[in-house]
Amino acid sequence: MLVKQLQEPSKCTQRLAKATWRRWLSLGKALEGVHTDYLPLKLTLKHFEQQDARASGLLGKMHNAKFIGVVTVMNHTLPVLNRLSRTVQPGKVPFCTHSTST
């Protein structure tokens, strides 16, 4: 049944966000997608493993316990860092306060 769903493009509508190093928040969105959809992503890559070298390489990295650990830890850490990043963007927090005491 799952293979049938994978073959029908209309059934597979969710896309994972691409992580880029230029935007800090994009890394959090991509990681959240991998953490949330780990099993469907793994099954999809397994389906395309023989036809696509990139899918085969990604699947190999996902079988590593270190990968699962990093995804889990970062999934708990990045939302806090994303909130902090949005808070300290220019114009939101005064970092320097001038004292008028003499």
SSE arrangement, N to C:
HHHHH
* Number of strand segments: 0
What's the main sheet like? none
Distance between the terminal alpha carbons, to the nearest Å?
Answer: 77 Å
Q: Can you tell me the residue ranges where pLDDT is under 50 for at least 5 consecutive residues? A: 1-5
Kindly state the percentage of residues in helix. 55-70%
What overall form do the CA principal axes indicate?
A: elongated
Class by SSE composition = mainly alpha
Number of helices: 5
Question: Which terms would index this structure?
Answer:
single chain, 102 residues, mainly alpha, disordered N terminus
How would you describe this protein?
The chain is elongated and about 70 Å long. It has a domain of 60 residues. The N terminus is likely disordered. It contains five helices and no strands. Helices cover 61% and strands 0% of the residues. α2 crosses α5. The protein is mostly helical and 102 residues long.
